Amino acid sequence: METNHNKGNKTFKITGNWELQSKQLKEKFSQLTDFDLKFNEGKETELLDKMGNRLRKNREEVMEIIKEINLS
């Protein structure tokens, strides 16, 4: 029996203007800091983990929050 322990680790890419998105995230979630929102190309996992820790949300929830910001 094969078990996929990484099924929650979907590939996630930051698209669009991250500077603008991070400002919107800080407005919506005042507990987020510049450190939490610092993004380096190819380091999406670290960003999701930092945001998740600060917001007390899992990675999938953080991905949904970022997607919602992209749609607004």
From TrEMBL:
<dbReference type="InterPro" id="IPR036629">
    <property type="entry name" value="YjbJ_sf"/>
</dbReference>
<protein>
    <recommendedName>
        <fullName>General stress protein CsbD</fullName>
    </recommendedName>
</protein>
